[in-house]
Hints:
Blueprint: H1 10-17, H2 21-31, H3 33-43, H4 49-68, H5 73-89, H6 93-114, H7 124-143, H8 153-158, H9 166-174, H10 187-194, H11 209-229, H12 235-238, H13 241-245, H14 248-262, H15 264-280, H16 303-308, H17 312-318, H18 321-332, H19 341-356, H20 360-385, H21 387-393, H22 399-423, H23 426-435, H24 439-458, H25 461-468
Helix pairs in contact: 1-2, 3-15, 4-9, 5-6, 5-7, 5-9, 6-7, 11-15, 14-22, 18-19, 19-20, 20-21, 20-22, 20-24, 22-23
Amino acid sequence: MAVAGSGWGLAQLAEALGSSEQALRLIVSILMGYPFALFQRYFLFQKETYLIHLYNVFTGLSIAYFNFGMQFFHSLLCVLIQFLILRLMGRTITAVFTTFFFQMTYLMAGYYFTATEHYDIKWTMPHCVLTLKLIGLAIDYYDGGKDLEFLTPEQRRFAVRGVPTLLEISGFSYFYGAFMVGPQFSMTDYQKLARGEMTDVQGQRPNSFVPALKRLSLGLLFLVTYTLSSLYFSDEYLISDDYMEKPFWFRCGYILIWGKIILYKYVTCWLVTEGVCILVGLGYNGKDQSGKPLWDACANMKVWLYETTPLFTGTIASFNINTNAWVARYIFKRLKFLGNKLLSQALALLFLAIWHGLHSGYLVCFQMELLIVIVERQVINLVRDSPPLSTLTSITALQPIFYVLQQANHWMFMGYSLVPFCLFTWDKWMKVYRSIYFFGHVLVFTLLLVLPYIRKLIVPRKEKLKKAE
């Protein structure tokens, strides 16, 4: 619940802009990260670390209060309990499992008691970001107690060797540039930021003003695009009588374009917050081979790849990068003991679905993602291994046609998967799926059944033997 009676006229401004007050508060909050970051750059750079932590706690809590009023106590409680878990249980697997159970249970309870049939901006939105952050902290703290030879290079990089104080954990949790919508970052990177080490020139403020401005500008461009496009493509129209009365080709085409547009609201938020992280230095990611500084440590979007890839897997690789990297690092790779990559991937996607919320639509969306990825990989391998198909797809004159067809197919299935993700409840997304005769499910399951037989028919046996060798 947003703070009432602020006297700032946000409700009236939101109504004039055709937006909700909660959405406007969110945009104001992430944009406020820029003046906050400028203050930290010019007045707190390489100051005492406790001042950095206090500043982040104050600004983060201010943002939380501005958006949710006294409901910010939920995050405070979870941060305090997380500190107690680390201190009382130490670097033990018990601390990791306790953290996972408590933080996920608290988040699920929040989802349960605040759930509606619509997407609402409420305290659970930043809390799901915080949940991952605190679980990751517990695992990194556990890794910090192991000998280096028992850790992978990635685990060594993120392992927390010291004992974080309550103030340090609070600053890490409430960092203004990532509190509301992410991105995810590690405690070790946050500690480097507090010490003034996240810079391309040691001892000097990071030369990150221009890279930050570029991400902000790109984010605002996507905001304008989404705002104008959403006038014509909305979730509500998908379940309207007018949509249901349209011909089949129109219903499919609408889902294709809607699926592209609807994701722009996430792209906007992630690009704007990435700019904040870059400006303060948290986005510093070392230098490339030519010595040019990289500012993509907090990148949640690869915009060019997102806009140009004709592959479903390409969109996954370009979208919500840091959250996907978190799941890969702390869930997927930790399930290596199962000895089954597909099972580990399925469990990681199940975790993602539950983490997003309790609505059935999330489970259906991520189940479709897994199936589509499997089919897409099988088709790519089939085209590669079949001489007729590989010859056909290598014809230069036909490649633009194939690209357009791939893009249309790619965004059709992306939109199809997003229908339950955005509509949440069984009755809504089932209504849409019935209107298009579940064609996505029918096609995916049909391909899963027939592709092995097609492969036997058009892939020469010698190619199979070569692949086996």
